[in-house]
């Protein structure tokens, strides 16, 4: 029975992290497929590099490149005793340098994927060579050759026809496999990515393709809690969740699981374990087919730094079906996803993440609507709410908008 493990950036942020992951792998029976993210915050650093490169700020781009390389060399030095010891890394570093020494194309998102993908390529090459040197035989797979997508760069859609077949071919047999999260490739072998934080989704795609029984994603938290412990120190563990509940949590923005991860797993009844890489033997959270959630406690999800906009048609027309279609098409055009929407006779309101296009969105909206907006608001969702939980979370806060159903209460807070 094949297992799939996924390790995020936090688990491999330094040499000790890599050694810790290695000790988890050593304890696990094979065949085992491990999916690994970029080390630490390297995806952010590579985003900076991409921006400078695309804006043709040569010097800035070179500086960002040097920082990324130095970060990895430090880890390599600690692991191998010599910063130049990892051949696969040296080759990749040369090709990245080659890319940024040339002119960028005019396609922002294409260049983004070409550059940001180096984070996962670097981390997996380093870890694969480290394992080999440490006597842990493994096979490095370039996921871009098997996880096939369309060419919607930065948010690519999986080709579900080709991908499972290619994955089964690449990961057949016994042993230990190592591959990259987050990345894909078009049928022309151009690099794509699945959206930020997409490595959980990669693990699910591979598990689905391999008919795995379970996937484990190893995190810096003991499992799924009823709130983000960084924001709510007294958050409590949830031992077991249904796929439905987990999908809802991810949909409302709980960072712990990427929203696309659950569907492929649910479709084949594959169990998802969320466990702590800091405490390997603790049970963590199990997500499977069941009714609801094991703990009857309110679950809090906070999306910070949101835009909140309210618009009203200038000509006093009602917000009816046709108007709604028009409004939603405008948001769609700018690829802005609404995290909350609400309408009344003459108003339509929405809460969303600023993806860099919201200024242009506002301009277009202003052509036909009166527009009012707030920046930097918080969107709080409480599932399984109680009157006390609402009171506790909203006391002393200005509520700009709210939406309460039987199970879920949502508030836009200043
Ligand atoms: P990865 O290392 O896989 O990228 P993330 O950092 O994306 O992991 O996700 C783990 C983080 O998610 C935790 O550090 C925690 O702060 C946050 N988080 C948000 N909501 C929850 C929740 N309900 N339960 C557990 N962790 C949560
Ligand atoms: N490295 C990517 C990111 O930080 C993918 C991931 O970690 O899931 O977004
Ligand atoms: Mg992450």
TrEMBL record:
It catalyses: L-aspartate + ATP = 4-phospho-L-aspartate + ADP. One of its GO terms (molecular function) is ATP binding. InterPro entries: AceGlu_kinase-like_sf, Asp/Glu/Uridylate_kinase, Asp_kinase, AsparK_Bifunc_asparK/hSer_DH. The keyword Amino-acid biosynthesis applies. Pathway: Amino-acid biosynthesis; L-methionine biosynthesis via de novo pathway; L-homoserine from L-aspartate: step 1/3; Amino-acid biosynthesis; L-lysine biosynthesis via DAP pathway; (S)-tetrahydrodipicolinate from L-aspartate: step 1/4; Amino-acid biosynthesis; L-threonine biosynthesis; L-threonine from L-aspartate: step 1/5. GO terms for cellular component: cytosol. GO terms for biological process: homoserine biosynthetic process; lysine biosynthetic process via diaminopimelate. The keyword Cell wall biogenesis/degradation does not apply. Residues 1-270 form the Aspartate/glutamate/uridylate kinase domain. Its EC number is 2.7.2.4. Keywords: Amino-acid biosynthesis, ATP-binding, Kinase, Nucleotide-binding, Transferase. Belongs to the aspartokinase family. This is Aspartokinase.
